[in-house]
Structure prediction request, 632 residues.
Amino acid sequence: MATKVCILEENPAILDKITENIGQIENIELVTAHISDKRILQTEQPQIVFLDVDYAQEKPLEVLNKIRQTLPEAAVFAMSKSVDSNLIKKMQYAGFVDCVHKPFNRAIFVQALDKLQNFTTKRENKGNKNIISFFSPKGKSGKTTLSVLLSMELAELTGKKIAVIDADITFADVNVFMDVTSKSTISEAIRDINFMSPHILESYFEEVNPLVKVLCGIRKPEDGALIAPEDMTRLIKMSAEIFDYVLVDNAPGFAPISIAAAEAADILYILGMDNGAYEIEHMVRAIDVLKSMDNWQERVRAIVTRVPNMTDEVKRRYEAQLECPVFLIPNEYLLMSLAANNASMIKNLDKSSALSVQIKLLAKSIIA
Amino acid sequence: MNANNKSRSKIITVFSSSSATGKTITAINMAQTLYQELYNVCLVDLDLQFNDVCRYLRKNPVQSIYDYGEEDAERVRITEYVMHHEDCFDILAAPQKLEEAYNVSSKTVTDALDDLRNYYDYIIVDTTTGFGDATLATISRTDELIFMGIVDFIPTIKNMNLALQTLGDIKFPADKIKIVLNRDKAKSEIASDDVEKLLGRDFFHTIPNDFPTCIASIKSGRPIVLNSPQTNIAHSLKALTYKLFATGSKSKGEGLMRILNKLW
Prediction:
């Protein structure tokens, strides 16, 4: 089926030129109109729109918002006679996919479509279980350790782009575990979330390696109060458009932010360590609350950490108590502490350790 | 009840910047030690969502701070919502349902603590990790803050430092913060001396590492100072309490008043 592309331009000569350059491309149906005539959007329902942002009568962002109201799924490009890096950044920041020089030729048009294809692929990955949230009733359950180690393992096994979002609004530790220094944090990303595109959001992440990036957590405990749950949801879903897997580390307990991260998740892991007290009982209570989520049985899984005897019988016992699939993580606390104390857990953890082996198994189960 | 009690009453908050530092065990055993010294003691469980005080003591609360908050504080007495037992200090329990935990406001917390001052010599508060609304409300009423810490790895110590800075930012007096190192001599490559230097203050007290005794206490439902009184950890928990309050036992007359108050 042909993709319908709409060009909205003030100058008829430029419209003619663009039509001449790209009008005959296979599987592209081109429709054009003067920029003042937006009815074409309603009548033609294009999937892609190229908008003249030089038109002095209207502000580009206002027009973009109007287009989004009419065509919420459409991809909108800006086009201008004078394109430089500042304009591109400004337009992307505003929410345009990209900014191209007009009149553009076939090569530029194809490049623009390629860029769009990346976004489309990420959106389609939603069915591939790519948002993974980690929750626990109490702390010291291993959420941060697991999210960090799992991110590296997923990257190694899949060769895909992985994000770790530190959404712990009590005390954020992901950057310490991964030995990254944050230039920007989740606070800045949330502050700017309503004004940016996925491309721009990626610049807030710190690179751990070419495949793994981390959005560092808050710098001070009081910064957590400035994060609204709806913005957290937007952040997570926008991240899922850029990255193949998004791992979200949360603070312990139910708070608006951790609930938002749970609801956005394709897989929600509930963690607890069985230290002989009431941790498992707390996990049961937490899971009871999460049963109100849509498709909770497909999405909710438990991980019990610091398990001394990792047998099938132990696993079945936990599964009977928690009423969901359970994954066991061995008690390697000293090993983990030693690794973390040497500047970077992800580099220093013994890859042959029982913990590393289990993390690899967990990653494989997610990919499968 | 003695009308002057309010001015003498002390609120002690047990706080930490990370989980599994021993807040609940410490709070329980401090309450028990003071109770054995014949003081009127109430332990308040403000770990609202996933609370352990009543679980560790195998008590089944009928009411909680949530029920108190649902009433007009001007018209009710907090003691109606407190669990009284013959053999134990009083407990103001946390909500037993998660949905109730959401509905305990900061005002309920401060009203409850202010009201408890009328009836108790010591109010020990067990909190959840970090600076949630309930904890901040408690800190606003706190006379002494027991800051529990463990020296296991660097992120934990980083967060202790951050929490101390935050306490400074909210103008909580530094001389009221008592840092207590728990699980001392547990396996760690970090020396406690180094941690003191990093934090810029000495540990007020250290509690030895004795996980089996703690678990035995939880399983029995009895505080360590009752269940295993001759262990080093029991002595240490008592010593912490005496260090803080250094008042020794109440007079027998005052102790008799506590018994009579329980009967009426």
Observations:
- The longest helix of chain A spans residues 106-124.
- The radius of gyration of chain A is 24 Å.
- The mean pLDDT of chain A is 89.
- Residues 82 and 101 of chain A are 7 Å apart (CA to CA).
